[in-house]
Design brief:
By secondary structure, the chain is of the alpha+beta class. The protein contains 3 helices and 2 strands; from the N terminus they run E-H-H-H-E. Helix 1 packs across helix 3 and helix 2 packs across helix 3.
Length: about 110
């Protein structure tokens, strides 16, 4: 008996592989989250340049996560890495089915 059925049928075996780049999430400290949120808000919301964002953030007392002054290059890096992270976390997984085998099972082999 195969799987509790006595009639003739087919046995299907397959492998499902799910690939997703969002399974591993890098850890942002609360300060990094606040800073990156502010950078994205100023760039996407107000359309400021990276130099303008750096100057505004410095005037508001922000510094880099390692304690240095923010320059346009570091603001661009924060913005770029945040966008990459957001894309990775919101991307859809793609399931793949492979190694499909179909076997005919008769009642003679199920006994």
């Amino acid at each position: 008996m195969l799987g509790g059925y006595t009639s003739t049928g087919f046995l299907v075996r397959y492998t499902v592989i799910v690939k997703s780049r969002g399974l591993v999430v890098g850890f942002y400290t609360p300060y990094q989250t606040e800073l990156s949120n502010r950078v994205v808000e100023l760039r996407d919301g107000l359309g400021l340049t990276f130099k303008g964002i750096a100057e505004l953030l410095i005037s508001e007392g922000y510094r880099s996560p390692r304690g240095f002054d923010l320059g346009p290059e570091s603001v661009f890096s924060i913005y770029k890495k945040r966008k990459i992270r957001d894309n990775r976390l919101t991307s859809r997984s793609r399931p793949e089915i492979s190694e499909v085998t179909i076997e005919y099972v008769s009642t003679d082999t199920c006994s």
